[in-house]
């Protein structure tokens, strides 16, 4: 688009993930029952899991407003990771580039980390007002640049960890499948799904922990 290069292959797989995330709650809640069954039960289980995760990291008083953000991050990363672990995108041939899970692209993971970098100071300012900036002069006013850089380096470290693990997992699976396509997918797929779920959980848990830390007072 002009002089701006768009990674269209990532946009394609991202919209596939977004479509799945939008369709799942619509299908699961279109016929709500007092005693949930089937897809409604699954959606409620996922929501309860995200609530528990957020409450554990932020406390009973602060977690509710943050559930949508943490839930969106976890759901997008989880489904993105699983799409790469369960479907070998790389076998789809494109004229330019190749398809891959959205989290297999550093642009996606850095964007997710940037959202976290904005979310946790916002939460701190919303909760504590300008006293939030007091943490930058603790224990003395000398190291504010170091304290400030931590707000960005900690979430960015999440992005590189997520990108590295998902990229390596997809690459290994793609190579092995190309060598022995009829044997490797059976044992490798469960391993990839497990790794993908753990990476989504780590990212969401630490994002919630950073936000929870910003709303706590300093003594």
TrEMBL record:
Record keywords: ATP synthesis, CF(0), Chloroplast, Hydrogen ion transport, Ion transport, Membrane, Plastid, Thylakoid, Transmembrane, Transmembrane helix, Transport
Transmembrane segments: 6-27
GO cellular component, one term: proton-transporting ATP synthase complex
Subcellular location(s) of the protein: Membrane; Plastid, Chloroplast thylakoid membrane
PANTHER family recorded: ATP SYNTHASE SUBUNIT A, CHLOROPLASTIC
Protein family (similarity comment): Belongs to the ATPase A chain family.
Biological role: Key component of the proton channel; it plays a direct role in the translocation of protons across the membrane.
HAMAP family xref list: ATP_synth_a_bact
Protein known as: ATP synthase subunit a, chloroplastic
């Amino acid at each position: 688009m002009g002089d701006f290069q768009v990674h269209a292959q990532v946009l394609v797989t991202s919209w596939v993930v977004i479509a799945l995330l939008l369709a799942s709650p619509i299908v699961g809640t279109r016929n709500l029952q007092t005693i949930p069954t089937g897809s409604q039960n699954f959606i409620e289980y996922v929501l309860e899991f995200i609530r528990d995760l957020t409450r554990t990291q932020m406390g009973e008083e602060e977690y509710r407003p943050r559930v949508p953000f943490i839930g969106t991050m976890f759901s997008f990363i989880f489904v993105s990771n699983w799409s790469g672990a369960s479907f070998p995108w790389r076998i789809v041939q494109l004229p330019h580039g190749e398809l891959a899970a959205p989290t297999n692209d550093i642009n996606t993971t850095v964007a997710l980390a940037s959202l976290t970098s904005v979310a946790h100071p916002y939460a701190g300012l919303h909760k504590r007002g300008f006293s939030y900036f007091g943490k930058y002069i603790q224990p003395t006013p000398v190291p504010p640049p170091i304290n400030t850089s931590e707000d960005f380096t900690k979430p960015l470290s999440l992005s590189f960890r997520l990108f590295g693990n998902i990229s390596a997992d997809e690459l290994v699976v793609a190579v092995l499948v190309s060598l022995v396509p009829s044997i490797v997918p059976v044992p490798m797929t469960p391993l990839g799904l497990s790794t993908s779920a753990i990476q989504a959980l780590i990212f969401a848990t630490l994002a919630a922990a950073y936000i929870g830390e910003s709303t706590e007072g300093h003594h």
